[in-house]
Structure formats: C-alpha cells, structure tokens
Amino acid sequence: MPRKGMRGFFSSSGHSEQRQRDRRPAESSVSPSRRTFSDTLMEDNIASAEQIIGRWGLDVAGSLFSAAGRPDSVHLLRAAAELHRSMVFFSDPSAESSASPEERSAALFRAHELLAAAMRRLEREMHLLLSAHHSILNPRDSLRLQYASSSDASDVDDAEVDGSGVGEAMQDLRAVAKTMISAGYGKECVRIYTTMRKSFVEESIYRLGFDRKKAHVHKLNWAAIEPTIQSWLAAFPVAFRTLFSGERFLCDQVFKGSDTIRESCFADITGDVAARILAFPESVARSKRSPEQIFRLLDLYDAVSEHWPDIETLFAFESTAAVRSQAVASLLRLAEVARATLADFEAAIQRDASRSAVPGGDVHPLTRYVMNYVLFLSDYKTTLADIFADFPFQAPYPPPESLFDATAAATPPVSPPSSSISIVNSLHENPWRSPPSSPTAAAAGSISARIAWLILVLLCKLNGRAELYREAAISYLFLANNLQYIVRKVKESSLAVLLGDEWAVRHAENARHYLRSYKRLAWAKLADEIPMETADMTAEEAERRMRRFDDALEAACKGRAVVSDAEMREQVRESVENMIVPQYRVFHERCKATVASAAALRFSPEDVRNKIDVVFTGSNGRTSSHGSSASGSYSGSTATGSSRTTHRSE
C-alpha cells in the first residue's frame, strides 16, 4: 500500500534528527528567505494539523465523534488529508519547492510523525465507533424497520440513511475509512474493521442457536441431530437474508470508494461463517440413513435452494467462491441421499415381515404408516420434482396382471384379489395421461408416478396379508378397509391433485366391490337359511328351520367385522340388515303362529338387528329382552381401527 512506500523515504538517523526538531517550538522547517508559496502552504498545513492532532492524543478518553468532539472531527480528518498532501509534496523532487534536501526531509519527517499520530487516533475512533454501534450496524435489519417501503435495503442511498443513528454511524465510519485508506493506512483500517465485525457476526450466529460445534454432526445419532436441524432451519434464513446481507450493505457503504477493499472485507467477515453454515446440511446427509429422515433432508434442501439467489448474489466475488461451492455441494449431497432414502423406503415396504392378521380385517398398521409417509412426501412435491428432475421414473418391474381386474373376484377357495393401480399400469406408456408440456410438468408427472408406485407396492404387500385370514369374507373386508383408507387419505390431501380424480374414483369402486364380496360371503348363507315360502310349512319344519337359522346367526355374529370408514360401515350395516331382517320378520311371524314352544323362538327381529349392529359397531344401540344376553358378549369389544379426524395422525 502507499504507506509502505512512504516509510521508505525515511532512515533511522532521520528519525533521531526529527525528534530533536520536534522538541523545539513549531516553526517552519524551510528557510523563510527561500520559501515558495507552495512551501509556505504546506508548512502552514503541517502547523495547523499539529494543533488539532495535539488536542486529540491517545490520552484523550472521549470520542472524536461524540457531541463534544464532533466539531473537531472535520478538522482532524482534513488535517490528516493535508498532512498526506504535504508528504507527497516534500517527497516529490519535481514539486515547486526551493527548500534544500535537508529541509524537505525535515518537513517530511515532521508531517509523517503527525500523520502517524493522527492515524493512531483514527484507529481508536474506528474501534470506538464499531464498539458503540455494533448492535445497530446491521443495516439490513435496521433500515428495513425504518424504511419498510424499500424493496431492497441495498438500494437505500445516503439521503435515506442520513437522518438515522445508523446512517450517522456509517457516515462517520466511511469518513474514517476514507481518510485512513487515502493516507496509506488501509491495512490497519481493514484489520480493525474486519476483526470487530467478524466478532459480531460470530456472536450473532451463536445467538441464533448455531455454533462451530454443530457444523459436523454426522457422527451423532438422529435423536441428537434433530434439534440441531431445527436450530439450523431457524437460523439459516436470518443469517443470509438479514445478517450477511446487512454486512454486505455495511461494507459497501463504509468502503464505498474501493471495490477491492469492500469485497475483501466482506469475504473476510462472512466467508468462513457462511461456508460453515452451508456445510451443515452436507454433514447431516452423511449421517446414517433411515426412511423417516427424508423429510428433514428435504427441509434442508428446501432452505438452501430457496436462498440460492441470495447466496449467489451476496457471495458473487471470486474471493467468496468457496461459499457458493459449498452450497452446491450440500444441495447435490442432499438430493443424492434423498433419492437413496426413498428407494430404502420402498425396499422397507417390500421387506415388511409381519405375519399376524389384524383382528376383524381392520386397517393394517403398514397401511397407516405408508400412507402418512406418502402424504408428507406430497407436501414436498416441488422439492422432489427438482431432486428427480434428471432421474425419470421407470417402474423397476411390471405390475402383476392380477392387480388390474378387481371385478374378477373369485369365490373361495381361490385367494382374494388385490386392487388395480391404473396410473402405474400406464408407466411403461405414459404416466401423465398426456404428453408433458414442459420439463416442470414432466418432473411433476414423475413424482405422481413414484407415489403411485409406492402405493402399488403397498397394495401388493396387503394382498399377501389378506391371505392370512382363514375366512375369505374377512380377507375381502380387510382389502376393502385398507383400500378405502388409502382412497380417503388421497381425497383429503394434495395427493388428490398428484394422482387425479380418475385414480380415486376407480379405487373407491374397487373398495366397494370388495365390500360387496364380503357381504355376499359372510351373510349370504344366513340369508339362505330363511325360507322364502312359509305358507304351507308345518310346525316341525318351521321349528327345524328356525334352529338352523339361529345356528347360522350365531356363526355369522360370533366375531367382529371391523369397517373402519364410518360412511362405509353404515352402508354395509344397513345393507346386511335389509338383506336379513325384513325376510326374517316374515318368517318369525309365521313361526309364532305355528310353533307351540316359545323357547324355539330365541331371537326376535329386533334381536337379529341388534346382533348385526354388534358385529359392525361393537355395541348395541337398541334394547330387547330377548337379545340382552346375546349382545352382552359383544359389548366389551372395541374397534381397533376407529376412524380419526386428522389424517396426519393416523
């Protein structure tokens, strides 16, 4: 810098000689008889500077920019500039000066000593200003509060900040920095500024809940990492949109006259901290994988990608290229791990080894888990589309043909069918139903296909679980419950947009088909025990047919049939009652007229209705003297798969 060049003018012997001169009263170093006008002007500048600098030595405790000292601030800054001019004048052999080399050297030494004293004072003033105003010198935040109408705080000009405490402090800092840099003391100025502001940035990041220890977490278990991710997600936007952008603005204002210095200062203050913060997502991505972690990985990806324009703009310098590189590295690593984690999730569904049948054909826990998982995935459809943009979906294997004809329901002993997933069936041809109009549409269609495929993998697994039931009727009920649960989840969420109305309608119809199959297999035998013609029936035959009906009723009602969906439960209950009770009522009335023993009539029509109610609801909403004992054996039963109102919690 210029300062080093100036110091080369002096020798150690010259310093000793100058100190002797400085002990004398201030007077011209050039002989009066030989002085030119320029000599006189420069000597007067040095004399004036000596007075103001003498009043503000390092022993003065107050600040030059306080209310008491501010009148002298302009004079001292001007004096420093004039001293530098004098040094340039007396060091220039071609200057208009009649002074001898010895006299010029003496004047140069004198100006240098005074300038050095002035710079020491300004170094202290820089420190005082930064210390006194460190909490308000985050201009991005402060100016946004004061000038809410401004869309970009970096566009706030001098006139806007002049009237505020922040603006005055920045003007003072800019004046000190400009004077020091012009005098060749830029290195000292930058050192003080960067040290003070970097300390402030580090403290601010710590207060936001993120410190150095949290930058490398890949060796921790997930329970310890999770709170750290939450802290990072809260701190990250504040750091980049408020703290770092504020530091960039402050550097631009204080070092307005030098692009090189303001770039260097900003890089020194924020570069390491920003890179460390951006390294955190990459460190998280290196931790041990599990399917549940994907949502936090997507949160981290979202945060970095959303703030990428800020990162690219703020850290656009060559000296801050490491920050941009770290952001890209984190995004790439997060995307890679997210893709692998989703593949792990699919594999986990296929590997599920639970072999116990869910009582009553209720919704399987795997169904609840998978559907809640894909529901959360659908909330990240835009992020997933970005992550899979260069990875078009291809079904790893063709779906089984048996999955695409739910109406081909077989009767026992053939195993019950699984549901169809039409969107997956079309993956090999066109998963979007129409040619994608743009890469964005193609990516969105790919995500729809991936989610449809995950549901298909689930349904294939459920088909195997349906075979665990000994009764084919409960197998159908199990498939109906699970498919209806899936359809309801889709309709109540953003999955409806991803999979489409046709998907939901088709699968809702499949669920109803399974329910009709259940009703036919579970209750048709009971209905067949009710004679259609009773007019010519003898008492003995009526009593025998009644006993057969009673036995069939007991068999049909011996267990619970869980229908999780409330609307579907009411529909099947009413359908079964309408199939059994009216016909039984006619038969019961005929038996009352012909059968001599009242003991032969165990169940009234209301008793039959109540027993059917118990099968589907687990409780008896009606009272009957005949059916009280029978219903008591079911009253303690509870549905293990009761419907819940919040789809995310099930």
Describe what this molecule looks like in 3D.
There is one protein chain. The chain is mainly α. It is 65% helix and 0% strand. The protein is built from 25 helices and no strands. The chain has helices spanning 2-7, 12-22, 37-55, 70-91, 101-132, 139-146, 158-161, 165-182, 186-207, 222-254, 259-285, 294-306, 308-314, 321-351, 365-379, 381-387, 422-425, 439-466, 472-491, 495-499, 501-528, 539-556, 566-594, 605-617, 628-632. Helix 3 packs parallel to helix 5 and helix 21 (501-528) runs antiparallel to helix 22 (539-556). The longest helix is centred in the middle third of the chain and has 33 residues, at 222-254.
Key phrases:
protein transport; 650 residues; Exo70_C; Exocyst subunit Exo70 family protein; exocytosis; mainly alpha; disordered C terminus; Exo70; rod-shaped; 25 helices
Low-confidence stretches: 1-30, 142-163, 404-440, 621-650
Q: How would a textbook summarize the main sheet?
A: none
How do the helices and strands follow one another from N- to C-terminus? HHHHHHHHHHHHHHHHHHHHHHHHH
Shape: rod-shaped
Radius of gyration: 43 Å
Mean pLDDT, to the nearest integer, reads: 77
Multimeric state: single chain
Task: Sum this structure up briefly.
Residues 16-26 have a biased composition (Basic and acidic residues). It is built from 25 helices and no strands.
What's the topology here?
Blueprint: H1 2-7, H2 12-22, H3 37-55, H4 70-91, H5 101-132, H6 139-146, H7 158-161, H8 165-182, H9 186-207, H10 222-254, H11 259-285, H12 294-306, H13 308-314, H14 321-351, H15 365-379, H16 381-387, H17 422-425, H18 439-466, H19 472-491, H20 495-499, H21 501-528, H22 539-556, H23 566-594, H24 605-617, H25 628-632
Helix pairs in contact: 2-5, 3-4, 3-5, 4-5, 4-8, 5-8, 5-9, 8-9, 9-10, 9-11, 10-11, 10-12, 11-12, 11-14, 12-14, 15-18, 15-19, 16-18, 18-19, 19-21, 21-22, 21-23, 22-23, 23-24
